[in-house]
């Protein structure tokens, strides 16, 4: 039986964060290298690792998260190997090098505790979304893991002058230096069934990337307020 299951055994540690398969994250934990992770995402661990749900630093930042898009965060510390997952979603590991990333809160899985992060309003969308759209902006040098409902596509917005349009419910993350604005369009097909007759997209321009998942989040992140 061991031979039959050998292909699923843990692989040697090569980095702080790496994929174990497509839908699981493996984190090499060490004393002094704390991790923030989505509460409830731990599926297994080896060694001695402690968990602190909703620590004070997180409560202070998350108090800005007034739209209900946020995810509860726990602090992980200790030594060993930690395995995280989010209901079978694909896991994408990113190593920031003095860089930053804006992530939809529902797609945040884990990030290094020493990184600078906060909840920020997305500029340029207030007239479409009432109080606006809120994302988690993570910056610095370190590791970040995000989730995607299916294999995502990463669009390089710097390849041309045309804007990149994304359904906000399929948006995972983007480079914060990109310019963002809302766009409203009319689709005749949306008059059929439960459609409202209008469709809304987020338009990105400038130098950077946009990460899009092949599934629409059911939170309806972008609405027009009367």
UniProtKB/TrEMBL annotation:
SUPFAM superfamilies, per the entry: TRAP-like
State the organism named in the record. Answer: Streptomyces sanglieri
User: Which Pfam families did the record assign?
Assistant: AIM24
**Name recorded for this polypeptide:** AIM24 family protein
